[in-house]
DNA sequence: TATGAATGAGGTTTCATTCAT
DNA sequence: GATGAATGAAACCTCATTCAT
């Protein structure tokens, strides 16, 4: 029954439908080549309605980047709260979690890359993402240091390690196009881990 | 005579000026948000002249991707011809070469990423790049195998190693925005190398 | 309420305003030399509105040809239903009707001629007109035959008579430029009739 | 041998090649949809050369109309000098001559119709053609009068007869698209003649 | 609140014409 | 005289946004 929903809930739901359509289409076609009319169609609303919930195409793009970012943040900045054990264990679990996250939300990763590729075009969003990266590094820094002290990780600048890790996450989205299947992502995880320390197969 | 250049040479030179302007602007602004008028201005020619040398905006984009690709190809598919020594040495030199290459041509790498991010939008170009990646893997495969036999490299699928290497190359372009300076790229090289085998600092 | 008209009626009306403007300007200036902006201005709507109702300039041209054709058709293919009496009477009335029709809609006749003059440029429209001509001949054929049996008409191929009749209708639009006045068209009618049989003045 | 030609002759010949190409293409595609480059190609010269012989596209169009007009004129204004015998004979021969003329030069007739259809667009050319029509009427007028006096022709305004004759000539170009073959044109001639007087078969 | 017709700025592309070689 | 590269005005068309219903 639709009628069980309050008005507010209905509105939230419609807003969310539109946002999901936007994420899908922006990620597939980029900002410029996505038409508001298409988003409306994908969301099953008239395109006037899109402007009821978002003031402009640009604002919708920002929401499409920033709102999922909030959902994803915990997995990157609550490292020690989420992943327990030895540093190596923590990092292993973290990588597993991240790879799985982007395997299921690869379209969102694409969106992020669009912003990273054009800092001057999307300054506000870029700043947000940059801050996010910095927070991640701050969070993971002590873990890496601890791992280095225990001799598990390379004696390398923890920032570099963290950044190269983000690089490989980003890059894999580009390289392994549609093969983000269960089969490969265990492998990917292993390779990502090797940026931290010398990990042989088991 | 205005110069010693023949007519043909002048034409080639003008074409190249336009292509360079296109590479710069396409890489900065993407295909859709780059205006042909801007390319013309950047190249210092009139608007219509762009269409004298390239039939359409799309064709110019293709040329901007494919022509530099030809220049870059040798560094990826003549591995054993170019880089000599032990497998570890070969890979080291190769990574150095590639990182330096993309440090100086980071704008071109951005172009490639635009295509990789949208295979359906640029099918022809994507196919070309995909073939390029496959050739690279074919070339590097025996080197990795040799390195594995000598115990330098991880006992990992050579394809996976090669692909994760390409991932980190691509990803680093996104992560280390404008810091591709001399200082960091030695570090980057080191991290890339760690995808092949367990490399400690020296 | 601004008016009693429903939304749908208003849309139809606007579409029709644009179509009329198009017929006028296309007939005066031809397809290529008519600018969509001019049509919009003539119709009193903005530029973009034209494209709300017609997908392209070409489609608008097709509508400008085909829609009035439907209105005109009955006068050419319902000969025996519309015009009564002896064959001679039927033909007389028919010619009268046609001449008057084209006197009032001379601009539309001009449009038709543009298509007839360029079958390869407008294949779809040409086919339509060609079919129309054939239907007309089919309809008038028995009337001419009957007239021939009664000795009123020349013993000539009815198709030839019909086609020469259409020729003179078309040709007169070109020859008697703006003189399609009441004065001359009785005369024109008489001359057209003489293609059917030997008609003296009365 | 080309070398037998004087320079002047060569130039004339090239000019004529271009003009013929122009007549062909203008008649097929109209003024606006014919590109100078196409004319050049058809004529086998570079398109800069077209502008060596004609100052503009418009001027070339005018030449394409006016120069063949001079060739055709004699057949329309030297009626009594060319065609001998009784008025009926004169008219018969004239019609024969004209139909044959336009059968072989139907493309030129198409050009004329383009101008007749747009007097305001081509005022200069239209005036020229209008004068031509008037001259024709002047020339044929006495012949018709004579025929009327002899009882061969309808007691109709000779101008009307002449104009309706021109109408059918023009119209037949539109109606009998590509069937201007030997078979039909005897028939067409007969129908045209019937605008003058009551002519039975044979 | 939801709709979608109206708007017009802005982009790509064509093509006549110029002019240096 | 012949060529064809350069130019830029002008046209079509798209699409974000507004706003009346």
UniProtKB/TrEMBL annotation, chains A, B, C, D:
Keyword annotations: DNA-binding, Repressor
SUPFAM superfamilies per the UniProt record, alphabetical: Homeodomain-like, Tetracyclin repressor-like, C-terminal domain
Keyword Calcium attributed: no
Origin: domain of life: Bacteria
Domain HTH tetR-type: 12-72
DNA-binding region: 35-54
Pfam families noted in UniProt: TetR_N
Claim: Repressor is one of the keywords in the record: yes
Database matches in PROSITE patterns: HTH_TETR_2
InterPro entries in the cross-refs: Homeodomain-like_sf, HTH-type_Tx_Regulator, HTH_TetR, Tet_transcr_reg_TetR-rel_C_sf
PANTHER family from the UniProt entry: ACREF/ENVCD OPERON REPRESSOR-RELATED, ACREF_ENVCD OPERON REPRESSOR-RELATED
Protein name: TetR/AcrR family transcriptional regulator
């Amino acid at each position: 029954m639709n009628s069980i929903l309050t008005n507010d809930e209905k509105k939230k739901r419609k807003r969310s439908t539109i946002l999901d359509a936007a994420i899908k289409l922006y990620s597939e076609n980029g900002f410029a080549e996505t038409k508001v009319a298409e988003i409306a169609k994908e969301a099953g609303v008239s395109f006037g309605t899109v402007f009821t919930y978002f003031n402009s195409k640009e604002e919708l793009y920002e929401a499409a980047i920033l709102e999922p970012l909030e959902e994803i943040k915990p997995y990157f900045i609550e490292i020690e709260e989420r992943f327990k054990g030895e540093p190596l264990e923590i990092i292993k679990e973290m990588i597993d979690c991240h790879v799985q996250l982007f395997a299921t939300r690869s379209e969102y990763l694409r969106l992020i890359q669009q912003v990273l590729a054009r800092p001057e075009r999307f300054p506000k969003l870029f700043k947000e993402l940059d801050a996010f990266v910095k927070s991640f590094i701050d969070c993971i820094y002590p873990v890496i240091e601890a791992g280095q002290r225990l001799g598990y990780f390379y004696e390398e600048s923890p920032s570099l390690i963290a950044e190269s890790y983000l690089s490989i996450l980003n890059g894999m989205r580009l390289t392994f196009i549609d093969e983000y299947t269960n089969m490969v992502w265990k492998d990917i995880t292993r390779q990502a881990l090797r940026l931290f320390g010398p990990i042989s197969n088991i």
